Each structure stands twice: as structure tokens, then as C-alpha cells.
Amino acid sequence: MISKRRLSKSENRETLMEDASKARKQPLSKKTKESYASNEVEENDTIFVRFLKTSGLILKTGDNQNQLAVDQIVFQKKLFQSLRKHPSYPKVIEEFVDGLESYIEDHDSFRNCLLSCERLHDEEASMGASYSKSLIKLLLGIDILQPAIIKTLFEKLPEFLFKSVSSDGINMPRLIFSQLKWLDRIVDGKDLTAKIMQLISIAPVYLQHDFVTSLPEILGDAQHADVGKELSDLLMENTPLTVPILDVLSSLQLDTHFLSKVRQLVMDKLSSVMLDDLPVIIKFILHSITATNALEVISELREKLDIQHFILPSWFQASQIKLKSKGRASSSGYQEDNSPNCVMLLFDILKSTLRYEKIISEAWIKAIENIAPESEHQSFDLAMIFIIYSTNTQAKKNIERVLKNKIRSGCIQEQLLQSTFYIHFMVLKDICPSILLLAQSLFHSQDQNIILFGSLLYKYSFNFFDTYCQQEAVGALVTHVCSGNETEVDTALDVLLALTGLNPSAMRLNAVFVKGILDYLDNLSPQQIRKLFYILSMLAFSKHHEASTHIQDDMHLVVRKQLSSTIFKYKLIGIIGAVTMAGVMATDSRSTLTQRRVDLSNEQCKQVTSLLQLVHSCSEQSPRASALYYDEFANLIQEGKMTPETLEWIGPTIFNDFQEAFVVDFCVVPEGDFPFPVKALYGLEEYDTRDGIVINLLPLLFSQEFAEEGGQMTSQEPGQKLVSPLCLAPNFRLLRLCVARQHNGNLEEIDGLLDCPVFLTDLEPGEKLESMSLKERSFMCSLIFLTLNWFREVVNAFCRQTSPEMKGKVLSRLKDIVELQEILEKYLAVTPDYVPPLANFDLETLDVIPHSSSAASAKNKKRGKIGGRKRKADGSKAPSPDTLSKEDNSECDAMPTGRSQLDKELTGKEVKTSVSLQNYSAFFREMDIEVFSVLQCGLVTKFILDTEMHTEATEVVQLGPPELLFLLEDLSHKLDNMLTPSFTKRNPFLKNKGNRNIGFSHLHQRSAPEIVHYVVQLLTPMCNHLENIHNYFQCLDAEDHSEVGGPGVKAQEYHIMASCYQRLLQIFHGLFAWSGFFHIGNHNLLYSALEILASRLKQIEHEQSLEELVSQSFNYLQNFHPSIPSFQCGLYLIRLLMVLLEKSTAPALKKEKIASLARQCLCRVWSHGEKEKSSIFNEHLHDMLCIYLEHTDNVLKAIEEIAGIGVPELINSPKDASSSTFPTLTRHTFVIFFRVMMAELEKTVKGLQAGTAADSQQIHEEKLLYWNMAVRDFSILINLMKVFDSHPVLHVCLKYGRLFVEAFLKQCMPLLDFSFRKHREDVLSLLETFQLDTRLLHHLCGHSKIHQDMRLTKHVPLLKKTLELLVCRVKAMLVLNNCREAFWLGNLKNRDLQGEEIISQNSQESTADESEGGTSSQITKSKATEDGEENEASDEEKEQYSDESDNSD
Could you give the CA distance from residue 920 to residue 892 in angstroms, rounded to a whole number? Predict the structure, then answer.
């Protein structure tokens, strides 16, 4: 018999390893004995066999199971009693175990002892179950045998650790270890734990995994702490066991502090774990989170968890392979197949945890919210936002808030969203409905950036997800189009347009949804209609025509129906739709394949021409419809969408039609009974009466007016064309674009129209203006408007011509425009209720002006028909189609209201200042962006030729200040419209839409980056103009002409130059404030613009960094500050410098310079028309003061300077004077200064972090000193209401006084709690000063009540509540510092702002005061008594505080 190997508690793991080594090298020795029959019973006279047989268990040999003749419990009980009652007990136990060890030396016998026993069927079992335990498990259930049996098993285990599985498929180590599971009782848990851990340390990896996972089924609760510590140690040493160890630790009852240590250990290993292990690790981390550490753990987890590291090399690559080879089985093995599954499993764990653990969900949101703006957000963060939004319905609002804030701050941009969809699209695909719901919510925002982010969600959802999600995305976009909100409609159509270009085949499957929008055309603006028809045309007239015939049929049906309508609103839809369709059809015919191009091109060219002919014939009887057709057709030609064949057909027709309608020979004398003498004016050449041409404007206008008023010509004869001067400018635009397209931009064929005169009359009103009738003045206004629009289109046409002769004529036409505008202002000032003829025709019926009403008429709002004819009193007469179109439209902006009284007071030259042409911008033709190339013109030499084409004389022409101002104003408006985001206001359904975009339809055909690129090219000439104006004002200052007044030329020139200065700064600000510069694709534009500014100071020799360019540009622009002529110019310059600093990585370096410039503006005397009573000046002063206080390094010192120096100077000065230190501070502007100072003071103290007891003594002293300064400033400001007691000042005191007290409670009182003992006198002084301020606030409450001012009294309840909280908080602070006796409480008397007691009160107030007095008495009884008016003090402390919350006597 082999010697026994016993494992005592003192033996270490080296012994086990030695045994295992020997077992691996030598075969197991067996007892030599004869083979038994297969069913033979073990016959052995040892105590072991005898006791088992006596207790009811028969040992079998071979492969047969041991037989149990009695119930398992009975067997254990009999065996226990036999051993316990044996005479040699406890020695008999050792003999019994020796017999067991001898018996199990045989492999088959040992295996039988580990397998379950066979129940004898002829024996009854009292309470037995169908399952029988093995012999070893039965013996382990006996307490007196368990330690020895366990010792024996652990001695046998090393023999099998490194053996392969036997032929019968039984894994002996697992079978042995399974005997220890689910025991009713563990006698010696610590010893068992030690043995198991020693065994795990030497076992193979696959067995280690099984042994670790079995621990919860073996050990009792008492051993959980010990085994947890052992497993944590093992976790540090053995990385492959991370997953089973964490799985076991999750099942054990462990201390939270211990789990946090393990979690931190695991967190440190996150970067090195395998993807297969990641789901279990994340699950353990999430399940170990508590409410106190949730935010900290989640924040650390998102920093260390790099999902992208796992996904990109495996999942993303595998997904691309699958997309390329659909249907083929993958052959790359485990990694390719398993990686996506592991990632999906990981996200499933995250979803499950977030759905059921509210703490984790909230912590994750907070962790993402707390990411610093300068930190880099990960795609995993955005994916988690989407997942939380889909799993937690209660967190939707919170998620939307966080996401919107991140978008506003620029932390989450398109690149991050794109990478999120690329990396996590498999996960996001499952939550597509939630993503679309989030996009829908973002669409309802007021912020343009948020709306654009929502549009990107739709776009990427369509591109990455399946057909169902695509259908849902298109359906949601169609819903937005039909919502009635202008911004939603525009953005949704832009997304649909982009999707149509990116994935036309997928969009074609969903075309039926887009086609449904045709039923809602009434609700769309013309620009939106244009986009919709372009989308449908792209889907209908693509290469796959056979699949889109139903869309074509519906579109043709809609277009023909709308064109045949007599209502202009619907005819407009038909014209826009038809021309848009023609453009797409022509474009598609040019892009077809070469071999089919001829046939298809001919066929589609016929379709295009027939469609255009249909539009022309349906619109020729309505001037407005014709003008709209000309403009729409011109846009197609400008965009290059017309084929040469179409232009060959349409070119001669357009030329002939224009010449027949509007051009006459110079020698032809107009015939007719005209009210004014007809003259050919504004010709740029000396014409011979035989060959010259002239624009026949006044006769056409007169004939139209005569036809409308007389009624004789309202119905045209058959075949006779209706010629209206309304079509002059649109028809010419179509003509010149057609000629330019056919001749590569050369306009020599029509250059005679640039300098030809116009049939007009003497336009300068002079003294005859007052004697003219209203009808005549209206006629003159219409004539001037039409002439201006003609000249505008002429300038648009010829501005790009390069010859000096053409440039000179263009400059002359600009001067004519400026001159005519001055004349027009004089006429408009004396012609109320006049509505000019339309110049922009893609407007809906109600887009120009609201319906007239009695109230509007009372306010002198302008109404009337186009053409200047006064609206008739009787509207019963049926109008013609043209008349109807004019009646349905009204003015765009009714701002110049209430001018009649002003007009009566103004005479002469003052009349022209009462009308602003900006209010009539909708009635002027749009200037093309190319016109501003004129800004680059210097001196232009124009040659005057004689009749034989010889140079007769030369004339030098240059761009004068009035023409420069005209161009700069137009460019400024264009940039404001194109680059400044419109914060949308939700308009009522079917109400005014697109008013902001009237007159910018050509501009909107270009993208914002294109406009910026063009303006950047103009920066050099604009800098030249800016420097010239700067030199002009410097020369004025040198000549001591700082006071320029009077009606002379000098004053007019001064104001024009100042306006040019302001417009240039506005243009610069609008350019650099464009949010698109942050997009990576536009960085080159920003660099180009900054290089131009930086090069004005010195030549750039090498490529510089962005920071260097920003700094040099800043230095260049700040040099203009000394010469700024007005306060408004100073504000725009400072705003421009602030916008530049936003591009800098270290803006703090220039922050103080901004404050210095703002202070100089506040301390400068502005005497050139700055009216401190005007609302515009007040707004600018408010902004300037805010900039100064926000950028200064010491806000409290700046406030103290203004309130302590400037205001006393104002108080001591005469009534209309100002402060000498701050000349902008007057009695009219005091309330602005006061409001800004109070707001900034409250904002400053609110941002100061409350101190903690752990802070150093120095920090406590600094914060206490800071609060002393803040309270001193507050005291100075509050006391000013005794002098300035107007309602706005008192309102500011009530509002910001309460906010300051609240900030004092939250930020200062914690500081006083632990500063009182060491700085008692400072704290008492601070509280005493603050008490006087709060007493003034209490008096203000009484003043508001006694004067019954509802605007003030609504703030009183909240203020009183805050004052009461302050009283209680001060008492708590004193109690905390063992000075409770220092707090006395009393009642304050009602006093006015001057401190006088309010004696007389009505009965209602007395009743209220008595009830308040009762409350006060209860407070007094419960606390202490103090007379708040007599400054009493206790013996120990000189602290006294009053109850400012009560106002009883």
C-alpha cells in the first residue's frame, strides 16, 4: 500500500506543486489485485467497507455504480452513530479515512465514489429524492468526517490536474471539485478557503476558471470576505482570470469599501483587457456603483474606456467586408465573428443598466455635462447620449438640455457626429426611432446651430440605416415641411435636397412621401416651392425615367393647374415650378451618355422649350407674372442650367421683345397728353438725334396709369401685348444674362443700354413740390422707383466689364442712383400712404405688408396699389388680373409710421431726413454680389469721343463717399442676412414668412462660404477705404474741427464719412463673426482674411500660426480707435476686436485691452449727433458698459469708480450736464449705468465660489476682503436710490437687490461661519454694513406698498422672504460660533426712501400690518428681543440684527 500523503494547514503551495510535478512524471501506482466481475461486490474487511455496508451502502467494483439501500439521510445518520459510538472513537475516524484512501487508490473505485450512487428499487426510502449523491458527497455531509475527507480529496486532486480527459469523457478535477458544492455545512471554512486558493494557484488556466467560478457554490457567507481578499490579490497577478474573478466578486457579499478598491484596480487595467472580457468588466463596475460615488466612477470610466480602440480594427472592418460581399459566409474565424457580438453584448449591458438604474443614468448624463469645453468629446459620449435617450424616458428633457448646451458651445460638431455613426452604427441602428425623435425635438429649437445638428441626425440616419429607418426619416422630414415654421421648413427641405443628391436611388423609393407635399404648396414660400420642385424634378427626371413617370405626371398636372389660375398666388407656384422643372430637364439632357445624347437632347430640348412657351403664354397678360417669369428664367441661365439649344431658341426672342417693348429711337417724340414735359435724361453720351436710342419709361408708365384709371384699355385687343414698365428691369436682366452666356460674358451687343438716356421729366422738385397733387407726387415717386431699378440692373450687368470706359460709366450710374435716391426721399416725405411698384416678384400675397386695418390707418401706415395710384374708396369694381395682383400686395416694412406730424414740423432740407429708404428695400432691385468689385476701382480715366470716334476729352471718375456709402450699406445688409443666424420665432401657421429674405433671392442662390470667399477678396480695398477715412478724421482733429455743425457741405461730408466708417466696421464684424469659420473646411478662408489684415502692418514673409495672425490683426484694428467719429463706431470696433479674440487660443492676454478701449469710449465726449435720449444710443451704451465690466480685471473696483466718483460728479453738476470723468453718464443715462452695475455686481459675487473650512487662512482672508468690497459697492449703489428715485431705478434695486442677498446667503455666509472666530471684527463690520443696506431694501418695500405701484410690489414678497432667510441664517451662524446671545430680534418701522416714518396708512394697510405684527411678536418671543432702530448691543458682542422681513410699527 502506497504511503499516505497528508496535507496539513502549515503546508504551503510549494508542496502542492511538488506533488503535482511528481504525479505528472510518474504513472499512478495501483494496488495489484485480481479483476472482479462486473457486478461483484467489494469484499474487504476494513472498517471503511464494513461501516459502509452496515449503514446501507454497498461498494461495487468495475464500472458499476455503488448501491444505496437506504435513504441518504438514514445512511448518514447510521454511519455517524456507528463512528460516534465505536469504542475507539475518535481514533476510528482515522482508521475509516485510511480505509477510504486505500480504496480510492484504484482509479475506477475512486471514480465510482465520485459518481452518484444507485438506489435499490426494492428498498423504500423514507423521504428520499430521485437524485442520489455520490459516496464522497455523502461522507462530506457528516461533520466528524468532513475535514479529513476534504484533506484526502485535495491530496488526490494534484494527480489529475495535468492529465488529459479519460476515454469515458469524465474530467476528474472538475468531478472532484464538484463534490464540495452546495454542502449543508462547512466545518472549517478558513481551511477550505486556503486549500482552494492554493489549488487555484497551481491549476491549469482552464481549471482555474472553473474553480474560481465554483467558489460561491462552495463557501459560506462567513468566508466571503476572506475569499474576496484572496481573489483581489489573484486579480493583480493573473490577468486571464479577470472575468471569472469579477463574476464571483459580484456574487459575494463584500464590503463596499473593498469593492471600490477592486473596482479601481479593474479600472486601471481597462486599457489592456481583451474585448471578450470587456462586457463582464463593465458589468462589475456598474453593479459596484453607489449613489455617493456614481458620478466619480462614471467620469473615470468614460475617460478610460476606449470603445473605438476595439471596434475600428475588427467590427468596422468586418462590417465593410460584409457590405461588399453580402451573402458570403465569413471565413476569418473567431475574432471577426465574435468582436461585433462582444461589442453588442457590452452595449446591451449598458442599456440594461441605464434602463433600470436611475442613479447610473443620471450620473452618466452629469459626467458628459461636466466635460470641459476644452476637452475632447468622444464618439462614445454621443452614442451614450443616444442610448440614454432611448432607454430612459424620464431623462429625455435632461438629455436634450445637455445636448443643446454642448452644441451651442461648439463641443459637439458634425465631425464627431459623423464618426459616431461610422463607429457605432450597428448599435444606433436598433435605436433609430429614438434618434429620429431627438432630431424632431432639436428641430423645434430657436438656435440655428441646434436645428442644423438635428438635420444632420436625419441625414446620417438615412445614410447609415436600413430602408425602414430611411422611410421613417423621410416621413419625419415631410412632417417638418408641413409644420408651418419657416426655419423647420427650410432646414427640412435642405436635408431632403442633400439626400436626393447623395443617395438618389434610396430617395426614389420614398418619393411618394415627398410628392405628398404638393398638397401643401399654399403654405410654402416661393423659395421653399423652388426647393421642393427641384427635389421632385431630380427624382422624376433622372436617368431612370421609367420608375418615376408617376411623379412626372403629378408635377405636370400641378404646374398646368396653377398656371391656368387667375389668382396670382397660384400662378406664382406654377411659374416657379415649371421653370425649375425646365432647368432640371435641361441639365439632365446635358449629362446623358454620348451615344444617346443627340436623341435624348433633342427630345428633352423640345420638352423644355414647350414648357417655357407654356409659361410665357400663361403669364404675358399679367405684368407681375411676366416679371416673375423673366426673373426665374434669368436665374436658370445664371446657374448654367440652360442648354445651348434652348438659348439659341430663346435668345433672339428675348432681344426682340425687349427692344420692341422698351427701346425707342431718340428722334421719336413721345405722343400723348402727359402731365409733365417728357425729356431724355441721364444720358452718358452726346447723342445724334438720328441714331440714338432711349428707354421709353415715362410714356409707358403714364399709359399704364391712364389705362388703370380710365378703364378704356383694361382689356387688350387680340394679339396685342401688354407692355408694363414693371417688366423693364426683369426683362433686361434676362436679356443681359442670355447675351453674356452666349458670348462668354461679353456685353458689347447691348452696351448701348448702359449710357442711353431715359424718357423722364424734370425730377428735382424744387418749389413746385408743395403745389403738386397727391396723384402727381405718387406718379413721380413711381417714375423714380422704376428709374432707380433700371439703373440698378444696368450696374449689375456691366459691373464686371474690364474696360476703363465701361468702369467709368458704371461709376457714373452709381452717382445717378445716389442722386435719384436723394430726390426720392423728398417726394416720399410729402407723399403718405404711397406704395411703390414691386421690384421683387417672388413674393406671396401677404408677404409685403399685413392687411390694412382701422388702427393701422390711424397710424398713417402706407397702403395703395402698385403704380402710385391712390386706393379708391369704392372697391366694388371688379379689377383686372394685373390690378388684382397689385391689390393683393402691400409694403414690406411699415416702420415709417407716424410721419405726418413730423412732416408738418420739418421743411426744406430737413424733410429728407424724415424718410428712410431702408424701409422701402423690398421695392428696389437686388444688387448682385459682383457689383462690389467696384470697391476696387481707384481713379478711372474715361475718354469722351467725338462723332468720328476720336478722343475729344478725358474725364477722371472715382468712387465718391456717397457712392461708397451706398455700396457699403448694401453689402452690410447682405452679410447680415447671409452670415448672421436668424434666431427663429415661431410664426402663426399660414402667416408672414420670409420677410427677412425679401430682396435677397439672388444672394441665397449662393452658399455662405462662397459669399465669405468673395468678401475676403474685397478686404484689401475695404482696408484701403478704412484707412482713408481714418486719415480724414485724423486730419479733422488736427485742424481742430471736432465740432462740425450747421447745414454746410462740411457737416454733410462729415456724416457721410462717419457712416462709411460705421458700415465698414459692421462688414468686418459680420465677416469675422461668421460661425462657419469654426468648420474645418473653412479654416483656409479665416487664414486668408487674417493674413490680409496682418499684412497691413508689416509684410508677412513666412507662414504664421493662427495665434500670430489674430494678434497682428488685433493690433492693426485697434489703431483705428483714436479716430472713431461716433460712439456707435466705437462699439462696433470693440465688438470686432472681441470677435477676433474668439479665434485666439489665449484671449485673456488681450482682454484688458478691450476693457481699456471700452473705458475710453465711456470717458469721451461725443458731440457729433449722439443723442443720449434715443433708444439706439441707450442700447449701445448698455452694451459698451457691459463689455467694460465683463473684461476689466477688477469689476468691483470699476463699479466703485463709477458709483463713487462719476455719480457724485453728476449729482453736483447742473441739470443738463454730465459727469466729468464719465461724460456718457448723464441724468438720462444714469438708469442704464445703474442697471448694468447692479447686474454685473450680482453676477460677479454669484460666480465666486463659497469657501470651505479646509481652505488656507490666506484664501479665507482674500475672500473676506473681496466680500467687504462687494458689500461696499452694493451699499453705494443702494443708497443712490435716495437721490434717483425714478421707477426704473427702484425696479432695479428690488430685482437685483434680492439676487445680491441670495448670493450673499449662498456664497458669503458659509465663509463667515468659519471666519467668525479669527476675524470677528471684520465679520461684524461686514454684517453691520450689509444690515444698513437691507434696511434700505425694507424701506423700499414700504415705499412700493404705500404708493401702490404694482410694477414694484410684485417683487416685494420674494425680497421679504429673502430678507427673512438672511435673518435666520445670521442667527444660525452666531449659534454655530457659540454667540447666540449676540442676536437680538426686533421690528422695523415703516419708513420711506428718505428714512422718514410712514404714519398715515389706510385701513387695509393697517389690517395687513397688524397681522404681520402678530407674526413678528411670535418670532420675538421665540428668539430674543432687540430694538432694531436704536443700535443696542450686548455686553459680549457688538452685533445687532433686525428683522427686515416684518414692517409692523
Answer: 7
Element (H, E) at 739: helix 728-742
Give per-residue pLDDT as tens, 898-956. 333 333 333 333 333 457 888 888 899 999 999 999 988 765 555 555 545 455 555 66
Query: Using an 8 Å Cβ cutoff, are 263 and 290 in contact?
Result: no
DSSP 1323: H
Please report, to the nearest 10 degrees, the dihedral formed by the alpha carbons of residues 1410, 1416, 1418, 1420 taken in order. Answer: -140
Q: Which residues pair with 758 in a beta bridge?
A: 681, 695
Beta bridge partners of 68: 57, 119
| Sign, Cα dihedral of 727, 729, 734, 736 | positive
Determine contact, residues 438/383, Cβ cutoff 8 Å.
no
Helix (H) or strand (E) segment spanning residue 680: strand 679-681
The conformation of residue 134, written as its DSSP 8-state character, comes to B
Q: Which helix (H) or strand (E) holds 68?
A: strand 67-68
Residue with cell 393701422: 856
The enclosing H or E element of 67 equals: strand 67-68
In Å, how far from its chain's centre is CA 92? 84
Dihedral sign computed on CA atoms, order 1384, 1386, 1392, 1397:
negative
Do the Cβ atoms of 460 and 382 come closer than 8 Å?
Answer: no
- The answer to whether the CB of 1439 falls within 8 A of the CB of 1433 is yes
Phi-psi region of 1395 (alpha: psi -120 to 50; beta: other; left: phi over 0): left
Q: Which single residue is written with the C-alpha cell 403669364?
A: 619
Q: What is the pLDDT of residues 477-504, one digit of tens each?
A: 999 998 888 888 989 999 999 999 888 8
SS3 state of residue 665 = strand
CB 46 within 8 A of CB 102: yes
pTM of structure: 0.73
Residue for cell digits 410699527?
1449
Distances (CA, A) of 961 to 793, 932, 939, 1030: 21, 15, 14, 13
Identify the residue whose cell numbers are 467620469. Answer: 299
pLDDT digits (tens, 9 = 90+) for 367-395: 998 888 777 888 889 999 999 999 988 88
- One-letter amino acid for residue 711 of the chain: G
Q: Are 1188 and 1217 a contacting pair, CB within 8 Å?
A: no
What whole-number distance in Å separates Cα of residue 315 and Cα of residue 328?
A: 17
Taking the C-alpha atoms of residue 463 and residue 421, their distance in angstroms, rounded to an integer, is 10
Which are the contacts of 1132, defined by CB distance < 8 A and separation ≥ 6? 1062, 1065, 1066, 1069
- The set of residues, in sequence order, having a beta carbon less than 8 Å from that of 846 and lying 6+ positions away, is 888, 991, 992
Helix (H) or strand (E) holding 1352, with range, is helix 1350-1353
How would you classify the pairing of strands 693-695 and 67-68? unpaired
Taking the CA atoms of the chain, what radius of gyration do you get in angstroms? 46
The 3-class SS string of 1217-1283 reads CECCCCCCCECCCHHHHHHHHHHHHHHHHHCCCCCCCCCCHHHHHHHHHHHHHHHHHHHHHHHHHHC
Q: Between the CA atoms of 460, 465, 466 and 468, what dihedral angle is there, to the nearest 10 degrees? A: -70
> CA quadruple 1152, 1154, 1157, 1163: dihedral positive or negative?
negative
Kindly tell me the burial class for residue 901, based on how many C-beta atoms sit within 10 Å of its own C-beta (0-12, 13-18, 19 or more).
exposed
N- to C-terminal Cα separation, the chain: 110
| Residues 499/504/508/510 CA torsion (nearest 10 deg) | -20
CA angle 275-403-987, nearest 5°? 145
The answer to whether the CB of 494 falls within 8 A of the CB of 527 is no
Torsion of CA 605, 611, 612, 614, to 10 degrees: 140
Residue 312's identity, in one-letter code, is: L
Pairing status of strand 118-119 against strand 951-957: unpaired
Q: How confident is the model at residue 1346 (pLDDT cuts 50, 70, 90)?
A: confident
